[in-house]
Write a structure and sequence with these properties.
alpha+beta; Chloramphenicol Acetyltransferase; 4 helices; 7 strands
């Protein structure tokens, strides 16, 4: 132990991606996939399924940039009913979220939509808000990190 802290095993880093916590009424269950071929992108209340592989190879950054730009340029689509605030349900207590999942997300379009998010390698939120460098605090991440930790939970999907 260093400074009274237990070191983390780096073997767990593989679980940063392709892993989600599925709520249960009594206990949660961890779902880890070997490899997901897409990421979920949240922008202006919509979830987009964005592939990260093309013909069995990881896409180049320039290819990903084109896809992100298409999402940013999408001015015509509007969120489906309830889509914009879906992530807020994950901030609910486990039992309530588990019961809501069973009742409303166990079949049909809702099941497919939730699978798209939960089986993604990870979720990216493209925020519409602008954040400036705070010269007083010397931290340009202060406001976004504060918003992410304490702010609008409809933009943050809790795994």
């Amino acid at each position: 132990m260093i400074q009274g802290l237990v070191p983390l095993c780096s073997w767990q880093y593989e679980r940063v991606f392709n892993t989600t916590r599925l709520p249960g009424v009594e206990t949660d269950r961890i779902q880890h996939l070997d490899d997901s071929t897409w990421i979920a992108v949240y922008y202006k209340g919509r979830y987009y399924r964005m592939p990260v592989y093309y013909k069995a190879r990881l896409m180049e950054p320039s290819e990903l940039q084109i896809q992100f730009q298409r999402i940013l340029d999408d001015e015509t689509s509007v969120p489906e009913k309830g889509e914009e605030k879906l992530a807020a349900l994950t901030a609910w207590d486990r039992t309530s979220w588990a019961k809501a999942r069973q009742q409303y997300f166990s079949k049909g379009t809702n099941r497919v939509s939730l699978d798209m998010i939960e089986k993604a390698a990870f979720v990216v939120t493209l925020d519409e808000d602008e954040y400036d460098f705070d010269k007083v605090k010397y931290c340009f991440l202060y406001l976004p990190s504060q918003t992410f930790q304490q702010g609008v939970c409809i933009k943050s999907y809790c795994f």
